[in-house]
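Researcher: Please predict.
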Amino acid sequence: MFILILLLGGCMGSKKILPRGLKYLSIGDPMPEAGTRRLKGRAVRDTLFNEGGYQWRAAVLQYKGGKVYIEEDFWGKGKVNRIRIESPELKFKREFSVGMDVEALKRLTNDWNIIYLEDYGLLDLASPLFPEVHFLVKENGRQFSATQFEEIALEQLSDTSKIVAIVVM
């Protein structure tokens, strides 16, 4: 029985999003080697991103309902720079996950810095409570634009807008 509890606890712990990354990998850790086939029991594949004149490698892990991208720094130093979670299987603070409504974030705190990411059509919500964790949200209601310079207030977002990714940086 004790062994079963330990095994279950270990499985549940691996599904946590922590302020510095995941239980098994944090920001600043060495990247998984290129060509790695499995990481923590999950299939892994490599990909390259090209954006804004930068190119960087990512290891992509498949989880239920989505992927987790372990992204390298832009300078090729082989360190984890960002972890982007697109799966509802992993949770931040045991409660918040991809697919949840913005209403849940409003209950967490009303202190959010919100910017519009025009290239992605998403809003980036970050709180001083945990500045390393960003929630990317697809707004259902109001439309935003990059030419809009006024601060975006939490009250402007629809309660039913969805979290599409959680990013640890």
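Model: The longest strand covers residues 42-51.
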